[in-house]
Amino acid sequence: MPTPSLSDFVDKLLLLDRSFQQPGSGGEEHGFLEKLLVTADTAPVLLSYVDSAGRYRFCNQAYERWFGEKRELILGRPIQEVLGEAAYESIRGTVQAALSGQRMHFERVVPYRSGGTRMVRADYVPHLLPDGRVAGFVAMVEDITELRQGEQARRDHARAERLYAVSSALSQVLLPEEVARVVVREGAAALGALSASLALVCEEGTAFELSAAHGFPEGVLNESWRRFPIDTPVMYREAVRTGRPVLYGNLEAFLREYPEQAGSPALLGRAFAALPLRVDERIIGAFGFSFEHEREFSSEDLQFMESLGQQCAVAIERARLYAAERQARAEAEQLRDRLAAQTALLETVLQQLPVSVVIAEPGGRIVRGNAAVETIWGQPFVASANIPEYVAYRGFHPDGRPYTPEEWPLARTLLHGETVVREPVTVIHSDGSRHQIDLSSTLVRDAAGRPVAGVAVSTDVTRHHELQEALRREGDVREKLLGIVSHDLRNPLQAISTASHLLLSSAVPLAPPQRKWVTRIRTSVQRMDRLIRDLLDFVRIRQGGTLPIQRQPVCLEEVGRTAVDELQEAHPRRQLLLEARGETRGEWDPERLMQLLGNLLSNALSHGSEEAPILVRVAGEGTQVVLEVVNQGTPIPAELLPRIFEPFTRASEGSNALKGVGLGLFIVHEIVAAHGGHIDVSSSAQVGTVFRVRLPRVSPA
Questions:
Q1: 382 SS3 class
Q2: Taking the alpha carbons of 507, 511, 517, 523 in that order, is the dihedral positive or negative?
Q3: Alpha-carbon torsion 223, 227, 229, 233, what sign?
Q4: What are the angstrom distances between the C-alpha of 532 and each of 320, 535, 605, 659?
Q5: Which of 23, 174, 347, 603 is least surrounded, with the fewest CB atoms within 10 Å of its CB?
Q6: CB of 294 within 8 A of CB of 249?
Q7: CA angle at residue 307 from 306 to 311, to 5 degrees?
Q8: pLDDT bucket at 35, cuts 50 / 70 / 90
Q9: Most confident of 233-237, 297-301, 334-338
Q10: For residue range 459-490, what is the model confidence (pLDDT) as tens digits?
Q11: What is the per-residue burial (b if ≥16 Cβ within 10 Å, else e) of 630-659?
Q12: Count of other CB atoms within 10 angstroms of residue 189
């Protein structure tokens, strides 16, 4: 008897039962419903009545066939006792719903007490009393195991055919873009999907790249879908992140998860799924589908989708490997061509290099030498089989000893891994001429660090040595002459200085023009004395490295005032000011500080504006004292500031040459350095030129 007819029959029985319970209907007779249900005793399905306590009040003969015991032993017993705990747990919720007055229909696999499982289709129809209470429910249960197995077999066969169709289609394409198009087309057909799309994770793992799509209207998937960040809220992200299928049986469930996609033209269908594409332990992307109608995804659906995803993932990976192999082969061919071209270019360059290049294998065999070998070494290139054969060329150490084979830089490089840089070697050519050569050698290693060759490079520096020696001799002569001249000039200058001082301090006062001339002579003598002193210090620095200083307790404010007073007297038309604050005492060389201040103030007088005052500031700051000399005027050019303290550098090329030779600031820098201090300079039209000296109060440790 078909289930719908039984359902109708039970509905009529319950309706009849309610009519008998109306006043005057004789409904007081108990058990009337059970008597009526006896008529269904021969039904081919389980038919029973369960009271509100969950006990069987009636069951038909089918129960005896299902459970192998008489009905009399079933009646009055609880459901869980008859079916078994496992079976009861699988339907507990449905039983409780029926006893609460809900009509229930379901299909599921139930594990029975006697062992094994059955796929059943069941209807629970509540029995409602006139006052609304639930007296129990009528249960109709049909075994549909064979029916579902047949349907499953047919579905499995159909799915196998669809998988075969996909596999067949994929076997005919090789390139990744072709595979992607076949995957989405055949995948959509196999699942009966409305649309399908394939998104692969990029090589860096930071974004998805849409490889192919099927079933979408033209222009819907715009450029923003071609590549998008991997954390974009879409199904692909969750499938890749979790490594499990992502399923939404209806549109409402999908939009709860991705509300931002509501109204998107790319949102098609009423149900959605995304499958991770896995190759070994790697997830390379995700396969997305949409379906026209809402649906429940069964375990069989999920298994089929996973099989499809696995097949497609393998095909994509195979295509990637094929494409990578093609690319590698093409690159190898290009590399071979480039290598041949570079080898030819290297050979050309090697032969035209003005330096000698010799290449040896790790074992010592010399295999290459360029044309410059003959020019530099005075004889043609000679190949050697090993290091003991390095006797073809004669070379001598600076002390005159000849090189043995093992002493050559190339031999030391090959034997000990030594890198030799510009080792001086004397070579005697066949014509007897002596040449000075700089010889360098090093190991060449491969990517793994293994030595593959030794290279020796030699340069003829004979001319350079000759020029260097000539320059050295010239410098020696110049510095000796400079020292002698500077020293000898001081004697007549001292006489002139003494005479001018006596004239100015004579008891017989000088006439104003005479005093002006004598003052000018004295100023010029002082300037020349500073120049000579700078020249002597320059020579001393060149010969000894640093300026000697004699430290003693000194007040920098007093030194500054003395220097300012002396130059103010020599330049009465200029204004020199001194500002001091804080403790300015320390241990310095007072003569050198006077020289430092004299040079800085002379520089300010030479290059500063004659209308603006020159300011000397002295300030004690903790463990150091800061000295600043500030003047207004044309700023020092920015390109000159980095080398202002170098010798023979002048702030202005247009200055009178008699005002200096460019050593004053160099000497200042050396005096500061000798005291362990620091000097810097800034210059702008707004602030002026500021030389700032920082001197530690005591000698640095």
A1: coil
A2: positive
A3: positive
A4: 82, 5, 19, 12
A5: 23
A6: yes
A7: 115
A8: low
A9: 233-237
A10: 988 888 778 777 777 767 666 766 666 666 66
A11: bbbbebbeeebeeebbebeebbeeeeeeeb
A12: 15
Q: What is the DSSP string of 203-253?
A: TTSSEEEEEEEESPPTTSS-GGGTEEETTSSSHHHHHHHHSS-EEESSHHH
| Residue ranges in 125-205 assigned as alpha helix (H) | 145-170, 176-191
Report the amino acid identity of residue 624.
Q
Contact 422, 440 (CB under 8 A): yes
Rounded Cα gap, residues 126 and 33, in angstroms:
13
- Tokens 């991705």, residue located: 258
Count CB-CB contacts under 10 A for residue 566: 16
Q: Which is nearest to 683 in space by CA: 634, 619, 628, 649?
A: 634
For the stretch 301-339, pLDDT in tens is 888 788 888 888 888 888 888 888 888 888 888 888 888
Alpha carbon distance 525, 256 (integer Å): 97
What integer pLDDT is reported at residue 655 of this predicted model? Answer: 44
Alpha helices in 382-511 (DSSP H): 409-416, 462-504
- Tokens 């719908």 locate to 4
Q: Which band of pLDDT confidence, cut at 50, 70 and 90, is reported for residue 520?
A: confident
Give the 3-state secondary structure of 562-609: HHHHHHHHHCCCCCEEEEEECCCEEEECHHHHHHHHHHHHHHHHHHCC
pLDDT for the residue 678: 96
Q: Looking at residue 1, what is its pLDDT?
A: 36
Segment (H or E) for 359: strand 356-360
Torsion of the alpha carbons at 383, 385, 386 and 388, rounded to the nearest 10: -80
The number of residues making up the chain comes to 701
Nearest in space to 186 (alpha carbons), one of 210, 158, 162? 162
Q: Which two tokens stand for residue 618?
A: 């002295």
Please report the DSSP string for 639-655 in residue order: TTGGGTTSTT--S-TTS
- Select the highest-mean-pLDDT range: 363-367, 456-460, 612-616: 612-616
CA dist 213 and 215 (Å) reads 7
Are 457 and 357 spatial neighbours (Cβ–Cβ below 8 Å)?
Answer: yes
DSSP 110: E
Closest to 291 (Cα-Cα) out of 261, 248, 259 = 248
Neighbours of 74 (CB within 10 A): 18
d(CA 271, CA 255): 11
8 A C-beta contact, residue 677 and residue 696: yes
Summarised one tens digit per residue, pLDDT across range 134-180 is 999 999 999 888 887 776 677 666 666 776 777 777 777 778 888 88
Return the pLDDT at 251: 93
How far apart, in whole angstroms, are the C-alpha atoms of residue 681 and residue 690?
6
DSSP lists the bridge partners of residue 198 as: 212, 287
What is the rounded (10 degree) CA torsion for 389, 393, 399, 401? 40
- Name, of 3-12, 107-116, 412-421, the range with top average pLDDT: 412-421
Parallel/antiparallel/unpaired status of strands 585-588 and 552-555: antiparallel
Question: Cα-Cα-Cα-Cα dihedral of 161, 167, 169, 171, to 10°?
Answer: -150
Question: Which pLDDT value is given to residue 658?
Answer: 38
Q: Would you call 2 exposed, middle or buried from its count of C-beta atoms within 10 A (0-12, 13-18, 19+)?
A: exposed
Which residues touch 514 (CB under 8 Å, ≥6 apart)?
503
CB 403 within 8 A of CB 396: yes
